[in-house]
């Protein structure tokens, strides 16, 4: 796994477009949830809201190139294979931004039309503005024989079904805890858990889990978490107090 940090999350214009939810994020135990609108302090949105693509550039559509690879839907984002949802992409390291782009949906326009893909992997050898699409997605916007094409691309809101979900990584316990957020409409900026009277931010790993290296400890009343999207919206949920590795919990709400 590799890690690259960018200092800013800048907003691309919001376009509501179809992007399938994570193949492995169905089901799970419902959690208690509340939703609040933030002020965009974690990256901000455009004047009409936004689904920012982590980048060092100003907001708006970007020009780039696309190639393709034999994708499975798995990759550095740790979502697992998604054989029934193969419109996916690996993203260049600068825009992958240490996994901040994982789960982001991107509308890509090529010579033959448009396709909306979900970020599931990083592409360390790709230069900035280079998207390495699945073969299936590439074939919807260009002839496969072209191999490498010019594109326009922009982050969009994912058309997911249901509420956000949380999964504990294998090996998680009250002594070492790793949580992934899945099935989110907008990219995730931050995950916190309640500790005493305040909130403690969990460190984001480049494989798309949020970590508490010393563990969250005993949580007899449930593990209270707060997840923040890149445009500042927050969701609060209560996960089971007993941590079960690979268990999936469905939250009580979805980002707007």
TrEMBL record:
Region Disordered, residue ranges: 21-65
Keyword Signal: yes
Biased composition (Gly residues): 40-51
InterPro entries hit by this protein: Expansin/allergen_DPBB_dom, Expansin_CBD_sf, Expansin_CellWall, Expansin_EXLX1-like, RlpA-like_DPBB, RlpA-like_sf
PROSITE patterns named among the record's database cross-references: EXPANSIN_EG45 (PS50842), PROKAR_LIPOPROTEIN (PS51257)
Residues of the signal peptide: 1-17
Keywords: Signal
Compositionally skewed regions (Low complexity) per UniProt: 52-61
Expansin-like EG45 domain residues: 74-163
Protein name: Extracellular endoglucanase
Organism expressing this protein natively: Labilithrix luteola
Lineage of origin: Bacteria, Pseudomonadati, Myxococcota, Polyangia, Polyangiales
